[in-house]
Amino acid sequence: MKKRVFLIVLDSFGIGEAPDAAAFGDEGANTLRSVSRSAEFRPENFKKLGLFNIDGAGFADSVQNPLGAYCRLSEKSAGKDTTVGHWEIAGHISGSPLPTYPDGFPQEIIDAFSEATGRGVLCNKPASGTQVIADFGEEHLRTGDLIVYTSADSVFQIAAHEDVVPPELLYEYCRAARKILTGKNGVGRVIARPFEGSPESGFSRTPRRHDFSLEPPVPVLPDFVKAAGKDSISVGKIYDIFAGRGFTDHVYTSGNTEGMQRTLEYMKSDFEGLCFVNLVDFDMLYGHRNNVDGYAKALTEFDLWLGSALPLLRDDDVLFITADHGCDPGFTKTTDHTREYIPLLVYSKDIRPHSLGTRAGFSHIGKTICALLGVENNLSGESFEGEIFE
Fold this sequence. Notes:
Blueprint: E1 4-10, H1 31-36, H2 44-49, E2 69-74, H3 82-89, H4 107-117, E3 121-126, H5 129-143, E4 146-150, E5 155-161, H6 167-180, E6 189-198, E7 202-205, E8 210-213, H7 221-227, E9 231-235, H8 238-241, E10 249-251, H9 256-268, E11 273-279, H10 281-287, H11 292-309, E12 317-322, E13 342-347, E14 355-360, H12 364-373, H13 385-388
Parallel strand pairs: 1-11, 1-12, 2-14, 3-4, 5-6, 9-10, 9-11
Antiparallel strand pairs: 2-13, 4-5, 6-7, 6-8, 12-13
Helix pairs in contact: 4-6, 9-11, 10-11
C-alpha cells in the first residue's frame, strides 16, 4: 500500500485519434504529434518516463529503458469534454452525453436567467471566448447586459466586465444559472468569464474565472478517498469539476505555473491520500486557440518542472500523469476538443517499468489509485496495481 498519490491531469493532452474519433468528426487529430513538430517542445523527462514508448507514439524517439509504467487509454463515456473526462478518470462512465446547444440556449432558459439576474442577454450562441468579448464588450459596457455564450462543450458561459459586474456578483449570477440548468438542460458547467479593458485598448479575460459544475451522479474517487479518512486535495479547477464534493482541502490557481508550484508545496508537506491536480493552460490558452508553439512551450515548462519534482517523491509516493481529452492545436477542422486516446505515465521509486498496452476506459486510473491507497470503492474499471508493483 502507498501513502500518497499525485494525479496530474494535463488538460487536453491527447495522443492520437480514438477508435471512435470519426463519430465525433475528429479523424486525424493527434495533439502530441502536432506539438512534437514544434521547436518549442523539449520533452526530456517525458521521454525518460516512457511517453514515446506508448502505443501509437512511434513518430518520436522512444528510450530503451523508460523509468515508468505507461499506456494509452480510450474513453468510454459519451462525450469529449472536461467534465465527463474527469468523471471517468475518477471512476464514473457517463452513458449519455451532456446537453450542448449549437443554436444557442432555448428562449425559456434565457428568460429565466434574465429574470433571476435582472439583466438582459447578449450573444446566446456558440462563440470563441476571446472573440465574443471583442464583439459584444462595448455593448455590454453601455447596457449592462450579460454576454452569454456556449461552445461545442456542455457549457453555459457568462462574460462580464469587472467594472460593470464585480466577480463576486458574477459568481452569484452563475449560481442562479446553475439552479436553472437542471434535468434535460443540465449542462456540465456554468462558467464565469470576467474580463477587463476598453473598446480603445481592447478587452482581455482576467484570471478570476470560476466553474460551477454538476455533481457526479455517483460517488467517485475523491469521495471514496475522503470517506476512508484520508486527505483528498484539489489543485486548480479539480474542485469545481467535482462541484466541491469529496475534498478535504483545495487551492485555486491562476494557471499552470502556479499549479505546479502548489503541487511542489504539497509534495514537500506531510499528508496521506490523494493530491488531484489540473493544469488547464494547455487547453484554455493553446489548444482552443490553435497555438501549437504555445502548447509545446507549456509542455516543455511542465517537463522542466518534472525534473525538479521527481526527486521529491518519497518511497511511498506514486505519480500519475494523464489527460482528460484532446484539443489538437494543429487540427484545422475545429478549435474544439478532439476525441483522442490519453496517455498514462505512472512513476514510483519501486515501480516495475513496462508497457501496459492500450486499454479501454479512463476509469482504470481511479480504480488503481484506490487500490494503491487501500481505499474501498465500487468504481468502474480494473486496477493494474499488481502489474506495476511486485
